[in-house]
Each structure stands twice: as structure tokens, then as C-alpha cells.
Amino acid sequence: MSNAISLTLASNVIGYVGLDGDGLGGIEHSFDEHVRGTPGKVTLLRDARRGVYLVGGDGANRPRDGHHVVLTIDSVVQFIAERALQQAMTRYRATGGSVLVMDPNDGSILAMASAPTFDPNRFRAFSPTAWRNRNVQDLYEPGSTFKIVTAAAGLEERLVTPSQIIDCGHGSITIANITINEHDGKQYDLLSFEDVIVNSSNVGAARVGLALGQQRFYDWIRRFGFGSRVGLPLPGEQSGLLRRADKWTQVSPASISIGQEIAVTPLQITRAVAAVATGGTLIEPRIVKRVVDEEGHIVYEPPRAAPRRVMSEKTAAVLNEILKNVVTRGTGEKAAIAEHVVAGKTGTAQKAVRGGYSSDKYVGSFVGYVPADQPRLVILVVIDEPRGEYYGGTVAAPVFREVGEATVRYLGVPPSVPSR
What we know:
Elements: H1 3-8, H2 11-14, H3 26-30, H4 32-35, E1 43-46, E2 52-56, E3 68-71, H5 75-92, E4 96-102, E5 109-115, H6 128-131, H7 134-137, H8 147-156, E6 165-167, E7 172-175, E8 178-181, E9 190-192, H9 193-198, H10 202-212, H11 214-223, H12 252-257, H13 266-277, E10 281-282, E11 288-292, E12 298-300, E13 308-309, H14 313-329, E14 343-353, E15 356-370, E16 377-384, H15 392-395, H16 397-411
Antiparallel strand pairs: 1-2, 3-11, 4-5, 4-16, 6-9, 7-8, 10-13, 11-12, 14-15, 15-16
């Protein structure tokens, strides 16, 4: 890798220090007391020729180096993610973006890319915007990726089955004088619930949200961890924006079902989708393995939360099949990887502005996992304000494919496409 990339690799995660050595961002800030070391005393003598030499500094009073923080980040996967993200940023002249790669089996975060980025050795030469870790600090409306949560709740509550026919109203539904339309002028009439997700029908998802109702839908959203911080040891993590059910309007269940009226972090979406990949259990993400001293002895190991079941294995299996079809014949076709079965969901969200939604600013995203039936990776890609193309299936799904393809090859994951 080039020096330019190596200088900035994972800088939004690692952070930066001030002139006095104090950690000011990222892991440098969160683990400052561990990494800063201990001052001590040394004895210096000056000889007749005015030369200075060290004669003492051992023992209890000697200076000690700080401890080492061992991260779950894999430098190769981080490089893959950062390169793919930067190429997409350039191609679509986007204002920002993020890529998160997580092992759903134990929650280890293998890559956490954020753009724009910065050189931590010259951090003051960059805008404070570049210092941010968008994966935990930025909030966005998730758009249609949130339909995974809607689908999980609807299936678990037995309000829908995959083959159940949903009336998609020839492209629109009106609730309390508010009309929700299909994306791109689509005019679906009757679709199976599976095809509602595969084709990302807003009207079909809204009907499920309305059937769930305010309190029940809210409880499901909370069950997946939205509205609360994940709890990674990274400064500035946001809890998201989720109003209590008693603050919802008549339209809210429909709007939230398609990823509006709610704001999330990329990390929260990744954790929620990983629950599908694991067969229905919510695994807490982790980014720090341990802290060791200069002899390699463990001085601190973060506590691990036990996995928590959020849906039945049956519901997760049904969702898995639906999300595989999103990639094979739906909006996520550009996320397909040649030798592996991929499951995932696209998202395209208009950005909220004062008084409503912008007509020309979008967030395009894709979240998925691979291999779909024995997942090794959950990958989320978010592209903020792309220009020209803006659909998640166009701007984000190819980044998923690039990161996923290179990473499974690097990890030596055997092909998962069924042999014919």
C-alpha cells in the first residue's frame, strides 16, 4: 500500500493526540490512561567536554512505556474497505461515506472506514469534519434497509407470511392526508410479501407497519437495539433518534416501516442485520480485544455481553431466503459475488431538511452478509449525497461486492455457490 494510505489507515478509529500527548480522538482518547505511559526520573551527568550521558534511570523510578491496545481491526480488510469507499466517493462526488465490516459470529469489527479521512500526524491541517468516525457519530435515515426490521416484526408477529399477497395500491397509499409513493414511480398492485421486500415496495412495507401499530412496532425497534448506544469504546457514539410510541403520529408506523422518521448510526444497522445472519441472536459488536503491557501480559479485557435472542430461528431463516432473493432478482443485484451466495438489502433515503425532505440530496446504502448460509461477514456501505446516481443498489451495492469479494478471498472462505 502507498505511504499516503498507510498514514491514514483507520485514522478515524485510532484518533489523534495533542502536543502534550493527550489523546483527543478515537481509541487514543478512550484509552488515554492506558497508552500514555508513566513518567519517571533519570540521572544525567555532564562531563568536562560538556557531553551529557545517562547514568541512572532503572528501578522503580524509571519511565515506563504505555500499554498496547489490541484491536479487532484487520489492517488488510481495513485497507480494502477504505480503498473501495474512496473510489466510490470519487466516482459519485459524494460528500461522505462509511463502510463497516463485522464478523457476525463474535461481533469483531474487522474494518471501520470513514470518509473523508485525515492524517493523524497533521490533524489540524484537516477539517474537523474529517476527524469524525461516521460509523458511530453520524445519524441518517436508513431508508429501505430498515425494511429488514419491519419484515422481522411482521413475520414474528404472524401478521404476514412470505407468500401472503399484499395490496400495493397501484403505487401509493394515503394515511391522514399523507401519501407514500413507490420509489422511481413504480406502480405495483398485488405482490407477495417476499416480493414486497425483493422489489423494496414502500406501500407493501407501510401496510405491515400499520398492521403492527405504534406500541408493538416501537417495542420491536427497541428490541433490535435502536434508540440506544451500542457501547463501543469510541468517543461521540450517538444513540440515534427514536421517538417514544406515544409521540408517534397516525402516519408514523408507515413512515418508520420504510426507514423514515427514525435516525440511526451505521453501527446500529450492522448489528441489527447481523441478528438475521446469526439465526436470530443479537451479538454485541466489539473493537477492542484486550490491553497488554510491554511484556505482553493482559491488563484489561473488555467484558463481553451474552448474545440475546431477538427473533426465532424460523423467522431468521425465512428472512435469509428473502434477502438472498433481493440480490439474485431484486434491487440488490449489483451486490452479487461470483462464488458466493449473498443476502442483503438496498436503501435509498431522501435527506431530511427543514420542512420536509430534500429533492436532490440522498443517502444510498446497502447492507448484507456473505456467505448467506454460513455468514463470515456482515458489510454495510453508506454513501452520503452522491451526485448523478443515488440509488443504494447503484452506488453502494457495488462497493459491498468489491469489499466482500476481496475479503472472503483474503480470509480463504471456500466458495458457497451450490455446485451444479
